Structures are given as C-alpha cells and as structure tokens.
Amino acid sequence: MPMTSTADVVVIGGGVIGASVAFALARRGASVTLLDASTPGRATSASAGGLWSLGESLGLGCGVILHTAQQGAGDGPAPLPRTFMDFLWTSNLRFPSLAAELRTLCGIDIEAESATGLLYLVYDEEQERHASRIVEWAGSDHGSVEKWTPQHIRDRDPLITHDLRSAIHFPGDNQVNPMLLTEALKRGACAKGARFIAEARVRALRCSNGRVVAVESDKGTIACGAVVNAAGAWGAQIARLASIEIPIHPVRGQIICTEALQPGTLRSNLSTRDCYILQKAHGEVIIGSTTEYCDFNTGVRYEDMCSLAAGAIRAVPALRNVTLKRAWAGLRPGTPDELPILGPAAELENFFHATGGFRTGIVAAPLTGEVVAASVLGQTPEFPIEPFLAHRFQFLTA
Amino acid sequence: MSHSAIVIIGGGPAGMSAAVAAATQGLSCTIIDEGFALGGQIYRKPTNPERAPAPHPRGEQLRAEVAKLAQQIQVRNGDNVWGIFDELRVAVTSPDQHTELLQPQAVILAPGAHELVPPFPGWTLPGVMTPGAAQTLIKTMGVAPGKRVLLAGTGPFLLAVACQLVDTGVHVVAVLEASSRPAWLSLPLHGFRTPKILAEGLAYLNKLDRAHVPVRYGRIVVAAQGETELNAVEHAPVDAEWFPDNNRIETEQVDTLLVGYGFVPRVQLAQMAGCNLELRPDVGGWIPVRDRNLATSVAGIFAAGDGAGVAGSLVAALEGQLAGMAAARFLGAIDEATFTAARDPIEQELVRLKPLRRALDKISALQPGLMSLVRDDTIVCRCEEVTWREARAAVDAGSTTYRSLKMTSRAGMGACQGRFCWPFLSRLVAAEAKCSLADIGPPSARPPLGPITLGALAPQAQDK
Ligand SMILES: Cc1cc2nc3c(=O)[nH]c(=O)nc-3n(C[C@H](O)[C@H](O)[C@H](O)COP(=O)(O)OP(=O)(O)OC[C@H]3O[C@@H](n4cnc5c(N)ncnc54)[C@H](O)[C@@H]3O)c2cc1C
Ligand SMILES: Cc1cc2nc3c(=O)[nH]c(=O)nc-3n(C[C@H](O)[C@H](O)[C@H](O)COP(=O)(O)OP(=O)(O)OC[C@H]3O[C@@H](n4cnc5c(N)ncnc54)[C@H](O)[C@@H]3O)c2cc1C
C-alpha cells in the first residue's frame, strides 16, 4: 500500500483513552493522527460513566458485585494499591477544569456532575464490617468519606430503600457522560491540529530496526515517528502486530438502562453488592454491571438482566414499575492485576501502551492522556508511571 | 406454561401458515402475536364488527385452519416477544408484565414489516400519519382518520387504503404516487402470469375513478404545514430520481396526510438471535440471510414473510408453509422425500409470483430525490427529537455509523432503537459522508424490543 500520509504520532483506538492521549499530544504541539474502527463492545460507549476514584479503587461498583457473585458477601473485595487510588484521585480532580476547557474549545458539555457523590448501601452486618474497613482504609487523605445513617439517606434520597443499615458516602465520586467526554476530547484534539480518521481499522504495523515506521489501516498507510496502542480490549491484538505480548483480556460488562425519568429523581450514584445505579443527565437510570471473562462475546444474558433488575429494585423499590429501555454489553480492557498498562514498550523504541483501563478507564482518562503524551514526547510524566509499565508482566509473557 | 416444539413469532399470514404446516405434521406450536387476535397486518380482525368492514376471507380461512388444529397450536395473543437469547430462548411478556422464557427446539420468525416514512418539513405534525395506521383505525374500529385526506408515497398499498377510506365515507382529496405513470403502465407486461393480482390493482383504480379521487403520478409531498396540527400540504412534480420541481408546488388544504413509501422488515429479533443479515434495498433493507429452505444462519431459526424481505401477503403465506415444513424436517418429524414433495409446489408458486413482485419493487424503489426534502431544522429522529442540523454536525465530525451517530447526537437512542428513523437517516448519512449503506450498517438491536418494566424481570425482588 502506498504511503498516504505522515504524522509524528499515530494513536490507535478512538475510545476515551485514545481520544485523551490524542488531545494531550495535540495540546503539546505534536502532529497526531487518531485512528478508530467501530467495533461492537467498545468499552467507552458501553460505560456507565461513573467517576468513582475512591469507590472503585476500594472495590465498590463492579468490584463488590463480582465479589458477591463469586463468594457471597464475606469480607468484601480487597482495595487496589494506593498508588493507583492516588492516580485515579488525581485524574478525577481534573474533570471540572477539563469540562470548562472542552466547552470553550468545541462547545460540548460533557455533563460532568460535581455534587452527586457515590453512596455505598450497607444491607447487613457483614457489609457493615466491610464498610468500616473501607472508611479506615480511605483515611482522611482523600476528601471526607462519611458514614450515613438511614435517616440521613432518607432525607436526601427518599426513594432509596428503608431496609438498610447505613451507607458510606464518597462526596468526590461523581459522574460524566463518557461518549460526550470522548467526542469532546476528539474534537478538542482536532481543534488543536490533530487528525481523526473514522473506520480506519489497523491491520499491520511496519517495523524496521527496532522501531515502528508506519501504520497500515483500511483508510491508508501512515508513516509515523511513534505509535500509541489505545485499542482497549483489543490492545493485545494491536501489540501482537508488532510481535509484542501484553496480558490484556476482554472483561464483559452487561448493563441495563431505563426510560428517562425526571432528572434528579435519584440524587446520589448508588453502589450495592448487587449492582450500581446512576441517573444520567437526560434522565435515564443506568444499572450495571456484570464482570465476566467470556472472550469477545458482546451478547446480553437474560439471567443477568434479571439479577440487575432485582438488585436495582432492592435498592430503589420505585424502579419496579419503570420501563426498561435497553440492555447492552461492553468489553473492558482487563489486566491480571487490574492496573492499566501505560508507557513505553520495552521491545520497540517508539511503541507506547495506553490500555488496561479496566473498570476505571473513564475516570482515569484525563491523567492517562497526560502521562502517556509526556512519555511519548520524552518529557517527565507528572505522575510516576513505573507501576503501570508493561514490563511488570514479563514473567507472564516471556 | 408452553413446551411447544416450535415457537412462531407473528400471527400474520406467514406465522399462521407456518403453524398450520408444522402442526399438520404432528408438531406442537405456539404462535405469539402482540395483536388481540391472529391476522397480522392485512388480515387484522375488527374489534368493533358492527362498524368495521368485514374481515378478509383469506384471513378468516387461515384463522379457521389454526382453530381446527387447536390441539397442536397454542395461540398467545397480546403477548410481546422482546428478546431471543442464547440456545433459542425466547423472552415473552404479557400485558400484565408476566414474563416467561420459552425454550423451543425451533423458532420461526414471522414478525412482518413496518411502514417507511421519510422525514420532510412538518412530518411530525399531528394529522400526518401512515396509511397503515389509518387502515388500522378503519379495520378494527371502523373509525375514519380525518375528514379531508391526502395520500402520498409509492406502491399499490396506497390505492388499497384510499379505497378503504372511500368506503368509510372519507373525502380523499388525491393519491400522489411518486413514480411516473409510464412506469406503472409497464406493470401488466410483468404480471401476465398473475392476472388476479393485476385485476385487484385495476379494481382499486376503477373504484377511485368512480369516486372522483385523482391519482396523480410523479408527485411527492415536499412539506406539511400547520402550527399545532396539520392544515395544508405542499406537493410538487418530480423527475425520474424524485427530485421535486420547487417552482411548481401546489398547496392542498387537508386535515390528514397519509405518507407511506413502502415497508421495512422487522429484523430485530433475528439480529438479537445472531442471524447474519444482508442488505437488500429492493425488498426493504436489511434482511436475514436465508437458504432455500428459509433457514437463517442460526441452526433452528427460520424466517418467513415480510419480516424476511417485503413481498406481500401471498408470498408470506407460501413462505410460512415452507418454513413450517422446514422446521418439521429439522425436528425430524418428516423425512427428506416428504419435505421435497411439499416444497416443490410452493417453490413453483413463488416463482410464478416473482416477476410481478420484482417489477413492483423496481417501480417503487426509493429514489435519491426523496432525501432532498430534509432541511436543517427537520427532525430526523422522533424519539429524541434530533434535527438534521445536529445529526449532520455529528456526521461531519466523523460519526458515520449507527453506533457512533447515536452516541454523539442521540439519534436512534430512543425506545424505537432507530427502527423508524434509521432507514432514512442511514441514507442521509451515506449521502453526506459519501459512503455506502452497507458500510453504515443496520441499527444494532438490543433487548428489550418492546416495553417491559424492571419488575417484569424480577417479580420476586425484595422491596419492603
Ligand atoms: C458496562 C461497563 C461500565 C463501565 N463503567 C465505568 C464507570 O462507571 N467508570 C469508569 O471509569 N469506567 C467504567 N468502565 C470502564 C471504561 O469504560 C473503560 O475502561 C474505558 O472505556 C476503556 O477505554 P478505551 O479507550 O481503552 O477502550 P474502548 O472504548 O474499547 O476503545 C478502544 C477502541 O479501539 C478500537 N479498535 C480496536 N481495534 C482496532 C483496530 N485494529 N484499529 C483501529 N481501532 C481499533 C475499538 O473499536 C474502540 O473504539 C465501564 C466499562 C463497561 C464495559
Ligand atoms: C401497517 C400495514 C398494513 C398493511 N395493509 C395491507 C393491505 O391492506 N393489503 C395488502 O395486500 N397488504 C398490506 N400490508 C402488507 C401485508 O400485510 C403483508 O405483506 C403481509 O401481512 C405480510 O404477512 P406477514 O405474516 O409476513 O406479517 P404480518 O401480517 O405483518 O404479521 C406479523 C405479526 O407479527 C406481530 N409481531 C411482530 N413482532 C412481534 C413481537 N416481537 N412480538 C409479538 N408479535 C409480534 C405483528 O404485530 C403482526 O401481527 C400491510 C402492511 C403493513 C405493515
């Protein structure tokens, strides 16, 4: 195929991570081409859009649902390493300013909410013990994690079930519209000079002397100075095009969504051991989500729809009579240790990873874009990326 | 609870014929239809028999055949099939929200088609509806849709509905047929093997002539006017590609406008079941890929009738028979010889009907001019009230697939999942982005297809 164009950096994958990396690169003045192919199951379009830096790193949201499904409530899931919690926390703090910047740059409101907070509902004694450990672990370094009484919950969100013991409130854990965020980052990148090519499935990487020299796609071949692998759950396939192995696995998440209700019907984002529940800006209530390894299958299972519905009705009984609009599934880019894979590949001088966002890819996106862009351009990332280097899996892939 | 060997979705001519064929071979079938009685679109049964016209005799006959096999055929009317899951599991919910998962050994999809309405300025005004909706009012309740009615679109269905309106005493101002008169005059050349159908068409024209209803060829509606409801319609003559001549617009004062440009197969259940689709604009758009025996790409799932490619009620009934026999063979109820002996005459009949059908499809094929009516502020997705300006901005920014356009503009995000807007929106997108309809793809189909509540999925859920 003839060389159709050139770019300093080619970013492969137009989900939230690729868009954020492209935006950060373009902002630093690099010439960027962002390639995407629409693939069923892409995580960003399936995502709930929770910005739960503390909640998810403490094992709530999907973590506790999986844990409950696998072994009953018990001790509750273990928290993720503190460095990662700090990474998500730092990233989450970017949203207010990022929202303002993107609004000015491309006129898109990413619907980043600032005051909903996440509420973890505690139904029984076992969960109560888990909750106490969470409060302890979170400590006072990140905002003010609080325990709420049933009365307090009722006063603020009267539709929440009265049949609970308490709840933990995470004031900083809010939400965003993941697709609008991605679209705004993409258009923002373009406004700063980047080029976006849709339906450009990457088929091959041309390598020579330990470097990638060109990316071959359905929409032409692009000569490049560096490549960023932001292909989400398909990240291992892209790496393999350069004969690199990384342990990325698709992790299916099924999710259901109701018709639009009056916005503000639910004030908090809710996490329970059965599901999580959040009302989006347009009024739909999203109820997620399973966490399953089933290869690239993007189907929805009847039984899982039923258990999500049951979990939602338990938490918010009034949802019983609400009409279901849609069920779908997405593929999270999962890694063995649940941490992302970011930064340079050891095998090729100019090949960088930005994948493995797993269940926190949306909240992680702003900082992920910054640190990967810095690392591509040879600058010092503002947050250390050593814990996230692909290198840590050498023993797995050797 | 049903443990039928075969679940048939849709109780129109295709579904009823399929059930009769399979039940005659001794198989147990369940027909599920969301309507209150069997019949489907064409053979719909009146709810108000005193006022509504008498039901079609062919429909009565099929209903009687089904009734005779009541031992084998269970009929579930009023129930909605909203999903097909792995291993042929069919999710059904009744109006009281009782939900069941049926697990037959074979499924016959016979869900029919829905009507195709292009967006044009004013098309969402009250008073603008489809010919089928007007027909349903007449057929079930004997109620007229309006006082002064204009019909516009393409195909013989417009003439049929115009005649029914005349019979109900409605003043039909005119029928506007987009294709040219010479094109229609060529039809008898292709229909000489099916004279009865041609005669039916001629009878419609005669009746309209006697009622002084003009049929005006080569004209389309370009805009509907009105503040809160329809009061006038603008129409114009078109060229061979249906581009209107805006210097020759005529305005007609009417309270009702019926617009129908053919039908789109309802393929969502086939999609959910994982059946491969192919793009066939000549028969309505995306259809399930089928083999000679109407088997889809998923073992045990067959598809018949308008839902697998629009071809009318006669073809639907024949296909239903064939699908019923094919399912019986699939389940081992009949041997190969019996099956082929049954298939041969059905295929011969299908071949006889084909030339006329092909000619009709060609005459009524949508032309690009129809896509030129949309203006910036025209709504292109009714559920989410997305305008063409908003959708086009998303297309121009690179959102050229159903999935990406939905996410960035909300077009197709509503309850109908793009079923109604996407047939035209995809054409607008293709023109804007200079790509093909095949590249753009069908809208994705996700459960639930019809409205169900969360409670329907979790009747036991604790809520104290
Ligand atoms: C149901 C569900 C709920 C979630 N909820 C949350 C949440 O509340 N909060 C949160 O922070 N995170 C959440 N996540 C996780 C989050 O959505 C993901 O971590 C994140 O979207 C990953 O983004 P990505 O850009 O890496 O991947 P993707 O969005 O999957 O993007 C990858 C892109 O690469 C493209 N691609 C693949 N192969 C090729 C190729 N060969 N050529 C070109 N392009 C290619 C794909 O088509 C796709 O567009 C959720 C995930 C799921 C599934
Ligand atoms: C509105 C309309 C009016 C028509 N009127 C005429 C006419 O007057 N004359 C004429 O010659 N042709 C008419 N046609 C065309 C003609 O009806 C069809 O060619 C013929 O009925 C096709 O038969 P079928 O069995 O394939 O589908 P249909 O007759 O459409 O039957 C399909 C049935 O399946 C049901 N169904 C679909 N999905 C589900 C689901 N998920 N759950 C439960 N039930 C479901 C539908 O409600 C319908 O009753 C009309 C078509 C339409 C759409």
- Class derived from helix and strand content of chain B: alpha/beta
CATH topology of the largest domain in chain B: FAD/NAD(P)-binding domain
- Termini separation of chain A comes to 33 Å
Distance between the termini of chain B: 29 Å
Gyration radius of chain A (Cα, Å) is 21 Å
Shape of chain A: globular
Number of helices of chain A: 13
Share of residues in helices of chain B: 25-40%
- On the 0-100 scale, what is the average pLDDT of chain B? 93
Characterize the structure shown.
With 398 residues, chain A is an alpha/beta fold. Chain A is 33% helix and 26% strand. In chain A, the strands form 3 sheets. In chain A, strands 1, 2, 8, 9, 10, 11, 17 and 18 form an 8-stranded mixed β-sheet that branches. Chain A has an 8-stranded mixed β-sheet with strand order 5-6-4-13-14-15-12-16. In chain A, a hairpin with a 4-residue loop joins strand 13 (269-271) and strand 14. In chain A, helix 1 (16-27) packs parallel to helix 12 and helix 5 (82-92) packs across helix 12. The radius of gyration of chain A is 21 Å and the shape is globular. The two termini of chain A are 33 Å apart. The relative contact order of chain A is 0.21. The model of chain A has no long low-confidence stretch (mean pLDDT 93). Chain B folds into 3 domains: 6-114 and 264-334, 3-Layer(bba) Sandwich (FAD/NAD(P)-binding domain), CATH 3.50.50.60; 117-261, 3-Layer(bba) Sandwich (FAD/NAD(P)-binding domain), CATH 3.50.50; 374-440, Orthogonal Bundle (Arc Repressor Mutant, subunit A). In chain B, the strands form 7 sheets. Chain B has a 5-stranded parallel β-sheet with strand order 3-2-1-7-20, with helices on one face. Chain B has a 5-stranded parallel β-sheet with strand order 9-16-10-11-12. Chain B is built from 15 helices and 23 strands. Chain B starts with 5 loop residues before the first strand and ends in a 7-residue tail after the last helix. Chain B is globular, with a radius of gyration of 22 Å. Chain B has helices at residues 13-24, 57-68, 131-141, 156-167, 181-185, 187-190, 195-210, 268-272, 313-330, 336-363, 388-396, 402-409, 422-433, 437-440, 454-457; strands at residues 6-9, 29-33, 73-77, 80-85, 89-93, 99-102, 106-109, 113-115, 128-129, 148-153, 171-177, 215-217, 219-225, 232-237, 250-253, 256-260, 263-265, 277-280, 285-288, 301-303, 379-381, 386-387, 452-453. In chain B, strand 5 and strand 6 form a beta hairpin. With 464 residues, chain B is α/β, with parallel strands linked by helices. The A-B interface holds A 38, 40, 45, 161-163, 179-180, 183, 186-187, 190, 196-199, 256, 258-259, 282, 299-302, 305-307, 309-310, 312-314, 317, 319-328 and B 83, 85-86, 89, 91, 101, 274, 397-401, 403-404, 407-408, 410, 415, 417, 439, 444, 446-448, 451-458, 460-464. Bound molecules: flavin-adenine dinucleotide (2 copies). The site of one flavin-adenine dinucleotide has 43 residues of chain A, from helix 1, helix 2, strand 12, strand 16 and helix 12.
